[in-house]
Amino acid sequence: MERHPTSLQCEVMSVPVRIELTPTETLHIHRILSSKIATRVFCLLEGSKSLNINAIALQCRCSNGNAVKHLKDMVKLGVVKEEWIGGQHIYRYVSNEVAKFLGCAIRMMEEGG
């Protein structure tokens, strides 16, 4: 899908970050930022190597189904990678500009700014 001039800005480690997003990517970011569970899941994965769905749901205090719903948005956005290892779905944070922006936006929301 073609990228549109829709852009968002945020400072990551005092460096301004500007990303251009498709409408679909913007929708996924909105869904993640508007859900406390989704932001918990993202922050958990951001600070972990990789986790299975049970560990994510347990640590985020939500159901497996809720965690999977939010993880699907993150996978489509490209900030989380899903792997199938040993009969389990394993999710891992992917460090890229969108993930850095999303992490920055979540921290700003937590600080109230």
Key descriptive features of the protein:
Arc Repressor Mutant, subunit A; alpha+beta; 5 helices; two-stranded antiparallel sheet; single chain; 113 residues; three-stranded antiparallel beta sheet
Number of strands: 5
Q: Helix-strand pattern, N to C?
A: EEHHEHHEEH
Number of helices: 5
Portion in beta strands: 15-25%
Give the CATH topology: Arc Repressor Mutant, subunit A
Helix proportion range:
40-55%
Unreliable stretches: none
Could you give the distance between the termini?
32 Å
> By helix and strand content, what is the structural category?
alpha+beta
**The named CATH superfamily:** Winged helix-like DNA-binding domain superfamily/Winged helix DNA-binding domain
What's the architecture in CATH terms?
Orthogonal Bundle
- How much is the average pLDDT? 87
Structure characterization notes:
The chain is of the alpha+beta class and 113 residues long. It has a single domain, classed as Arc Repressor Mutant, subunit A (Orthogonal Bundle). 52% of the residues lie in helices and 23% in strands. The protein has helices spanning 23-33, 36-46, 53-60, 64-77, 97-111; strands at residues 7-12, 15-20, 51-52, 80-85, 88-93. A three-stranded antiparallel sheet has the order 3-5-4. A two-stranded antiparallel sheet has the order 1-2. Strand 1 and strand 2 (15-20) form a beta hairpin. Helix 2 (36-46) crosses helix 3 (53-60). The termini are far apart. The model has no long low-confidence stretch (mean pLDDT 87).
Itemize the secondary structure elements and their pairings.
Layout: E1 7-12, E2 15-20, H1 23-33, H2 36-46, E3 51-52, H3 53-60, H4 64-77, E4 80-85, E5 88-93, H5 97-111
